[in-house]
Amino acid sequence: MILEMKVPSPGESITEVEIAQWLVADGDYVEKDQAIAEVDSDKATLELPAEVSGTITLKAEEGDAVQVGAVVCLIDTDGEAAVGGSAQATPEPTAAATEGAPKAPAPQETTYASQTPSPAARKIIAEKGMEASAIQGTGRGGRITKEDAVKAVPSMGTPPEWGNRGEDRSKLSMLRRKVAERLVAAKNETAMLTTFNEADMAPIFELRNQYKDAFLDKHGVKLGFMSFFAKAVVRALQLYPDVNSMMDGDYKISYDYCDISVAVSGPKGLMVPVVRNAEKLSFAGIEQEIGRLAVKARDGKITVDDMTGGTFTLSNGGVFGSMLSTPIINPPQSGILGMHNIIERPVAIDGKVVIRPMMYLALSYDHRIIDGRESVGFLVAVKEALEDPLTILMEGDANKALEL
């Protein structure tokens, strides 16, 4: 029986996806629920599992944009897995048949040159006038993928002293193109402004050093900076609700909850999963939820639902060494807080110069809905909470706040 596999809907409002990568080759035998392809939507990259076991025939090429509900491959359920992974097994010759027959040559070691290019790669290689044997494949089993063919540069007799002058041209994923589109829209369609401040991180360092081991033993996660920042942001959003609002045409939408989007880096680029109802979560709850979402993003298993919504965004460029930046608003939100690296700097405290671990903070906001008073007040409230977390965020009892 031949089963037509169609593109499932990855979420509401998504009508088209792109074949990012085939994880199997045409004619392979696949098992039910085996991941056979990665597909990009404008919100996430998802794996496409085989619906049944059988021999697969691909009906779309890598890079193709296909409609939700379109057939992308066929699976022949009558196909059988053979020894060595071939789709069909070759019957063993009988003793009579092999008697007196010449010995078959020993199998040669497989090289990249012997791998068959994908259909899309074959077309590109032909257009470039190249030989497949000159290209090293990076696909499964050394197969030459479309991306390998695109990156391959025909030999032009470049003088040795020039060194390597290759070029890399690859199409952005649908997710990356959507991110780019949204960033440009945020710059063009909002009255974005950034205000800055700095925070002395010494009090948080002291609390973490004192309670990190007990916190890890009790909750199974590390006591990081993100829970302190999320707590400080939730408090500031409650003090300045305009920062927790959005524009919708001529209307302002305000929220009585805090869904905090947290920018994390994944294999497919920047992801912004949402910590729901952060105002109801404890320090441990925030750290556990951020950890769960970060693992999903790292493993490529983040879903559209994980990234939908959010009323304010936290972006931690400091983990990459950023000293100062002007983060771009994540539309339709009205504000984003940029965290940066912590550097020991000389500062004046009580008339004396001392060395303290300092972090620059940057709040980018939509000036159409948030005025200077609210933006500056919000950032000052965050600074106050970070510099006195025991009093402001823990109500004077760290053991109770950390549930130790």
Walkthrough of the structure:
With about 400 residues, the protein is α+β, with helices and mostly antiparallel strands. The chain folds into two domains: about 1-90 and about 115-155, OB fold (Dihydrolipoamide Acetyltransferase, E2P) (Beta Barrel), CATH 2.40.50.100; about 175-400, Chloramphenicol Acetyltransferase. Helix content is about 30%, strand content about 25%. The chain has eleven helices and 17 strands. Strands 9, 12, 13, 14, 15, 16 and 17 form a seven-stranded mixed sheet that branches. Strands 1-8-6-3 form a four-stranded antiparallel sheet, with no helix packed on it. A four-stranded antiparallel sheet has the order 5-4-2-7, with no helix packed on it. Helix 6 runs antiparallel to helix 9. Mean pLDDT is about 85; it is low at about 85-115.
Summary keywords:
single chain, 404 residues, alpha+beta, OB fold (Dihydrolipoamide Acetyltransferase, E2P), Chloramphenicol Acetyltransferase, four-stranded antiparallel beta sheet, 11 helices, elongated
